[in-house]
């Protein structure tokens, strides 16, 4: 299983002009060489670049992401710990994070951001 294209498409001439941002926009000009798909120009998004359904929303580690806000959310991943990995919500305190990481280790659940919001003394 592999993902087809992970590289982002950059907007045409975003490297030439400062006022043109990098986020993709379709070209609409009547003379635009990119819209007319001239040889040697950068690739445009097409349906063929899409990922197959099995790998869609999958992380590079091969797991799907699941946001954990409380201990009950971790318990849901008990049987699916080889499919999903936990991501601790951003609004959790350091104390609650510590508890959830310990519980995840007991349940053998992977945690993506297990070191977030921990002070340096506790990490060592």
Q: In which range does the helix fraction lie? A: 10-25%
Q: Write out the strand line-up for the largest beta sheet, numbering strands in chain order.
A: 1-2
Q: Ends: how far apart?
A: 37 Å
Number of helices: 3
Main sheet summary = 2 strands, parallel
Average pLDDT, all residues = 90
Spans with pLDDT under 50 lasting ≥5 residues?
none
Question: Which percent band covers the strand fraction?
Answer: 5-15%
What structural category do the secondary elements indicate?
alpha+beta
Rg, alpha carbons: 21 Å
Overall 3D form: elongated
Could you give the order of the helices and strands?
EHEHH
**How many runs of DSSP E, i.e. beta strands?**
2
Describe the structure.
The protein has 124 residues and is an alpha+beta fold. It has a domain of 71 residues. Helices cover 19% and strands 8% of the residues. Helix 1 links the parallel strand 1 and strand 2. The model has no long low-confidence stretch (mean pLDDT 90).
List the main descriptive attributes of the protein structure presented here.
8% strand
Summarize the structure.
The chain is of the alpha+beta class and 124 residues long. Helices cover 19% and strands 8% of the residues.
Indicate the topology.
Layout: E1 64-68, H1 71-76, E2 84-88, H2 94-107, H3 120-123
Parallel strand pairs: 1-2
